[in-house]
Structure formats: structure tokens, C-alpha cells
Amino acid sequence: MKNGTKRWGFVANQELNTASGITVRGVLNMVMAAVDPEDPRSTIPLGHGDPSKFPCFRTSEVAEDAIVEAVRSAKFNHYSPTVGILPARRAIAEYLSLDLPYKLSPDDVFLTLGATQAIEISLTVLARPGANILLPRPGFPYYEARAAFSHLEVRHFDLLPEKGWEIDLDAVEALADENTAAMVIINPGNPCGNVFSYQHLEKVAETAKKRGILVIADEVYDHLAFGSKPFVPMGIFGSTVPVLTIGSISKRWIVPGWRVGWLVTSDPSEILKKTKIVDGIKGCLNISSDPVTFIQLGCSITTWATRVQILETASMCLQGGALPQILEKTNKDFFRKIINILRQSSDICYEKIKEIDCITCPQKPEGSMFLMVKLNLSLLEDINDDIDFCYKLAKEECVIVLPGIAVGIKNWLRITFAVEPASLEEAMGRIKSFCQRHAKRPQ
């Protein structure tokens, strides 16, 4: 004690501040704070991947009814098993197996609190002393934040805009060493809107095998592909290299707030069991939370119902009020509608960008909900960088766009096109007006 002041024995963990660094949420909160509350115009959010606020992106009635029935049954008010409820895990295994050359088991599936927890678990399990992980640039910054908190060294490989945002595989080979645990790929791409071809993913698998590393495949936007390339799951190459697949229902079903995802091992050779990675995943789940039980059930039967081929399996797995509703009402129209809206909106966004001199889009989006555009600051007055651009755009036009620095590349912008088409047209018009107002005048 000094001068009557007690010395307290606690202090905040400063590593949390270091680990959080630049996050999408933090940057967007800063940008949104610039919006003028007196501006009568509505604020148009083109900065995040949550289209659920727009009526055209409402989830299916089948999904809503499944949740209601699960709650009303009173059969799912108990704690969940550590790895998730068996019918839900079996349903996800069946759902993913339809796109694979082999069949997944429920034991390959671990339920998580959204894809975010799946990322946390993956990186925590791999974070042995001295280990490093290879991450894409641009990418999803939560990987960097979680790696920093887990004392896992990060090394970045570039995605190449001139090649449709393909992975620089030569860089992957050069970066990997005996302490490299894994590489992360995001497909369909956040933030670039790219979709990797079968041939490119095959090369990814061969490169990872050559360097002795596993692949963490972030497939949160699975099947949200609307261009020339179909979605190909990385798990197809599980016989070449072990794959940890991260997924959720957040994007395809437009329910990010439901917070249910999965971590799946695609590993027919059982390398992940032999190296104790599976044991590590179970250990992490033992000391963490899990999705609420009624959502696990509700989401699992929603997933079953999307694929007619596995309804018989579902009927053997489940007894309850939700199944008859799913069997009667679910069809492919919901997914077709979402894809059509995303295709229309991406076309609008891409074409409107062509009308704006100071931003260029190197690759038309073919999937997910985003595209990346490059800023040409030499054509603008009084705009210092991408953060300054977004801050002033929010202040002057009530349009929210994410600065590229938040996803790893400075003086680029990530634009979300998963909004109502009419709102998107309005937003792109405001961006064009902003750029014209700030355009550098001829000397």
C-alpha cells in the first residue's frame, strides 16, 4: 500500500488487445460512427455479410417451422453432448457426403457455435510451440486474431487478382517449413467473390501434401456460386491431404444469428486421428460452449430436407413433429431464389463500378457475397487512404463500405452486394457522386 491506496492483484490480459488488432467489426463500427444522424437518407450497409435485414433474403419457412417445432416439442431443453446431437451430426455428414467421393461418418462431424468457434478450435488445436500457419491475403481477419491469441505464427500467401484471385502456390511452397501446421483456403471467397476450380483445388491438395501440412477449408459460403465455376468442396481431395472443413448454415440459409456451424474431418486415411488432431478437437469442445440443442435439431432437419436423396436416412434418424413439415414443404426454389438475387446484385455492382473512374474491379464475382475493388488515390483529392475514403463516404453519403486494410490489403475496398437490388443501385449511385465530388481537377 502506498498513501492509503491498495494495490490490486488483477490486471487485464493485454494479449487480447494485440490479438484483436484490426477486425471487421471494429473497423465497421468506426466507419458507421461517421454517419451523420441528421441525414434523412437511410444508411445502406455494403460492409458486412449479413443480408438477413433485407426482406428478399429472408430464410425459408421450412427452416423457421423446423425451429418452432423443435422448441415446442420440449424434447430439446437439455444440454447437448460435447460434439453435438447425433441426429444433427449424422444429417451434416449425409449433407456433405453428397458432394464427396466417399461417405462421411457422424464421428467426422463436430457441431460448433457458428463457423467462428470452428476457427477457434482449429487454430487452438494446431498451436503447438513454434508452429506457424499459412493464411490468404486478402482474407478473413479473424484467423489472424485467433492465431495471435494462440501464439501461432502467421505467414501470408497472396491471392492473385490477375488470375481470378487464385492462390499463389509457389509462395505457399516457399513459406512452408517443418513447423508449418496448415494452410487456410476460403472458397467461395471472402472477401474476393472468387470460386476455385477443381483443377486449382487439386493443385492446392498436391502442394499441401508435398509440404506435409493439412488444409483448413473455410466453406461458409458453400454452394453460393453463380458464375461459370461450380462450387467444389475441398473434402473431395481428402484422400490426398487431410482436410478440416469449416461450415455453417449462416449464409446459405441467411440465418447468421442462429450461430450454428460445424468442423468436419475429411480424412479417409485417418491421418488426423493418428496425429491426435481429432482428440485435440474433442478436448477443446470439452472446455467450450456448444450450439443450443433446439437449433441443432431444427437446423439438422432443415439441412436434410434440402436434399431429397437423404430424406429416408432422416426419417430413420429422427422422430418428432418437424419431419412431416419438412417432407411436405421443402423444395429447391428457396436456394434458387437466393442464387438469382445474388447473381442479379453482383451484376449490378460490377457494372456500376465500371462507371466510377477511381475504383476498378479486377474480377467479376462468381460466388459468396463480396467483391474487391482497387482505389486509385491519384484520381482523388483530399482522400488519404482506404480508411479515409470509407469514413468520408459514410459521413457524406450514408453508405458503409469496408476498407481493404481490414482484410489485409491497403487501399482496396470490400463491397457487399447481398442487399436489395434497389438499395444496391442507390448505394452505387451515391458512391459515384462521392467520387465525382472528390475527383482531382485538371491543373
UniProtKB/TrEMBL annotation:
Cross-referenced CDD domains: AAT_like
Gene Ontology MF annotations: pyridoxal phosphate binding; transaminase activity
GO annotation (BP), single: amino acid metabolic process
Cofactor(s) required for function per UniProt: pyridoxal 5'-phosphate
Residue ranges of domain Aminotransferase class I/classII large in the record: 44-431
Coiled coil start-end: none
InterPro entries found in the cross-reference section: Aminotransferase_I/II_large, PyrdxlP-dep_Trfase, PyrdxlP-dep_Trfase_major, PyrdxlP-dep_Trfase_small, TyrNic_aminoTrfase
Keyword terms of this UniProt record: Pyridoxal phosphate
Sequence positions bearing N6-(pyridoxal phosphate)lysine: K251
Family that this chain belongs to: Belongs to the class-I pyridoxal-phosphate-dependent aminotransferase family.
PANTHER family found in the cross-reference section: TYROSINE AMINOTRANSFERASE (PTHR45744)
Protein name: Aminotransferase class I/classII large domain-containing protein
Native source organism of the sequence: Nelumbo nucifera
